[in-house]
Amino acid sequence: LFFIFISLCFISSTIFAQDNEKLKLKVEKMNKTLVAAMLANDTETLMSMYTDDIISLPSYQPTVKGIAKLRELSEMQAKSGWKTTSFVLDITDMIFSGNLVIEIGTYNMAMSGPNMPEWLDNGKYMTIWEQQTDGSIKIKVETWNTDTNPWAQMEQVNQEKKVD
Q1: Which residue ranges in the chain fall short of pLDDT 70?
Q2: pTM for this model (two decimals)
Q3: Residues 81-106 pLDDT 10s
Q4: Can you tell me the distance from the alpha carbon of 105 to that of 58, in angstroms, rounded to the nearest whole number?
């Protein structure tokens, strides 16, 4: 009996490891889609990646709940003239729990906007992916925050203006 129990434990851990590897590959593939959609300002593709009850916790903004509100804000940004010109995600950790995958990582990005120089940013993020009944995964919760101190950047710009 002991041998059977140990064998079952080994087999089940091997199966879970294979499932986790498949989920990791799905997250990596979805991240490539997300990056491409951000660079293209493709709101439709971005919205297709979220659950209807998405909770988004962006830096320097209130919590956004629900796909309708997220769509509204995404469309406003797309119309504002601001554009993401580069975006790189680097996954540092993944945690698997039931039908959820918690992705933790860092990002580097650049944006440009009307009458503004290119803005560079880097920071960290956490995305919680939820496995759907059809086997796909969608973003259930996301948060990110910058490692760049915007006040220090503003102070530097002000100092440069004083020199000119």
Answers
A1: 1-18, 150, 153-154, 156-158, 160-161, 163-164
A2: 0.81
A3: 889 999 999 999 999 998 999 999 99
A4: 15
Q: In what order do the strands lie in the sheet with 100-113?
A: 64-65, 50-57, 137-146, 116-131, 100-113, 83-97
Give the count of beta carbons closer than 10 Å to the beta carbon of residue 159.
Answer: 9
Count of Cβ atoms closer than 10 Å to residue 148 Cβ: 13
Task: Say how far apart CA 48 and CA 1 lie, in whole Å.
Answer: 49
Phi, psi of 40 (to 5 degrees): -90, 0
